[in-house]
Specification:
The protein is mostly helical. It contains 17 helices and two strands.
């Protein structure tokens, strides 16, 4: 008896372990990861450069960025819901529907951005609630005020990304993100530190006095503006213009806008609840001292290595789900979703193994403080397990959002984050005087339950019956 060892018959992951459609899924996920990473990089570059100015500016930029994004989280998913309607319209072959919902999504995004811009201008009202020193509060307000000047373009950018991603055109958002980041970097150097300029013909050009944190916020706002303009410009390119006629203004249609708000608002609340839950978690941990808070922040950095790839897979899962449901094939949508779950599980388990193997050394990359390093091994193991369950939660949310099943996701998140996660963290840290390890173990349990609850919803198939266009 001889064994057939031909490559055609060999399968290293037999049966249910095999990932089908992996290239198609990753072709959607990878550019999306890079596009979303560009949003994070703008804040990171601001922070890194302001660290060279002074510690007060660095602290204010960190606080300002956190408060700005916390307020944005109330509307981000509402603007992004454009992608769900575009993906299902695209799946149905309805080009006019794609253009129509892209325009309605822009109207919602502009309205949301104006609300956020007003909040940014009057954010000085909430500064005393942070209990930071007066100089930090003043600089934080300066950062938020100028950073919020681009709030409309931030939200419009999310809506335009939905237009591209819903049609599986994921390269354009990546290119626009790269352009926006390059603009932000150049302007950061010019505006934060100033420049003597260049003298030509007896005149000095481009001279700029150092603006510090104000310059960082202005640079980021301009970078966001350029990113959004690039997305809009590509949407008006000849090929897309001929097919979708986006240059032809579609007036606001209340029926469509109500439809999008009905589906998108629960998703927006889900995002807000999640962000605010972790903000409260950080506040409670901070009451135990600087060392536990620093260790917790490093733990979050470790989890970020999972977040961005999972976000790309989550977006891919939502787009594919929407496309196949639009074609009237929910079972195919479920099949693609299961393959995305496999990819996410394989990645998160591999990352967990790496973190666990390096648990005694990985915190040393971020700090040399012996007190923080003493907490490192235990928190690294907890982070490794946490990110597996967080990935399951994200992927399930992406699939259900692609189908328009956003209300259930919001209710589960509300029940577990505000009904369990926040009270449990308060009980472990404040009431029982627990340590940061106990807080992260509690967080892991909460995210496990949330991930399982959302996956059960996916497995039930109830999302097959949701009609977002009714």
């Amino acid at each position: 008896m001889t064994l057939n060892t031909s490559k055609r018959h060999w399968n290293p992951l037999p049966g249910k372990l095999t990932v089908h459609h992996g290239r198609e899924i990753m072709a959607l996920a990878t550019p999306t990861i890079l596009a979303m990473l560009s949003q994070t990089l703008m804040w990171t570059v601001d922070t890194a450069m302001l660290g060279r100015v002074n510690s007060v500016s660095l602290a204010a930029a960190g606080l300002g960025g956190m408060l700005t994004w916390a307020s944005y989280s109330l509307f981000n998913n509402l603007s992004r819901i454009t992608g769900t309607f575009v993906s299902q319209s695209h799946g149905r072959g309805d080009d006019e529907g794609v253009a129509h919902y892209a325009w309605q999504g822009l109207y919602i995004a502009v309205a949301s951005g104006l609300v956020l811009q007003v909040f940014g201008y009057y954010s000085y009202v909430v500064m005393p609630w942070t209990h930071n020193p007066p100089d930090v509060q003043a600089l934080t307000y300066t950062y938020i005020k100028w950073r919020s000047m681009s709030a409309v373009f931030t939200q419009a950018g999310f809506a335009l990304m939905g237009f591209y991603q819903g049609r599986r055109d994921v390269m354009v958002p990546m290119y626009a993100g790269v352009i926006g980041n390059l603009v932000n970097f150049v302007l950061d150097v010019w505006l934060i530190f100033g420049w003597a300029g260049v003298t030509v013909g007896g005149h000095t050009w481009f001279a700029m006095a150092p603006m510090g944190i104000k310059g960082a916020a202005i640079a980021t706002s301009i970078g966001v503006f350029v990113n959004t303009v690039a997305l809009a410009w590509w949407a008006l390119a000849p090929g897309l213009r001929q097919r979708y006629s986006l240059h032809r203004v579609r007036p606001p249609q209340l029926t469509a806008i109500r439809r999008m708000i009905r589906v998108g608002l629960p998703s927006a609340w889900e995002g807000f609840i999640d962000v605010e839950g972790f903000l409260m978690f950080t506040i409670f941990v901070g009451t135990t001292g600087a060392v536990p808070l620093a260790a917790s922040q490093i733990t979050i950095q470790l989890i970020s290595f999972s977040f961005m790839p999972m976000w790309g897979l989550t977006t891919a899962a939502g787009v594919l789900t929407g496309n196949w449901i639009g074609r009237g094939e929910p079972l195919t949508a479920a099949r693609y979703s299961r393959q995305t779950y496999k990819l996410g599980l394989y990645y998160s388990v591999l990352l967990a193994l790496v973190i666990i193997l390096l648990r005694h050394h990985i915190f040393g990359i971020f700090t040399h403080d012996p007190a923080v390093l003493a907490l490192g091994a235990g928190l690294a193991v907890t982070a490794a397990i946490f990110q597996i369950f967080d990935g399951l939660r994200m992927l399930s949310s992406g699939v259900l959002t692609g189908a328009g099943d956003t209300r259930y996701t919001m209710l589960v998140t509300l029940a577990l984050m505000w009904g369990m996660f926040i009270p449990l963290t308060w009980f472990l840290i404040v009431q029982r005087g627990g340590d940061v390890q106990a807080a992260w173990v509690g967080a892991t349990v909460c995210y496990l339950l949330q991930g399982l609850a959302l996956y059960r919803r996916f497995a039930s198939g109830r999302w097959h019956k949701i009609d977002i266009f009714r």
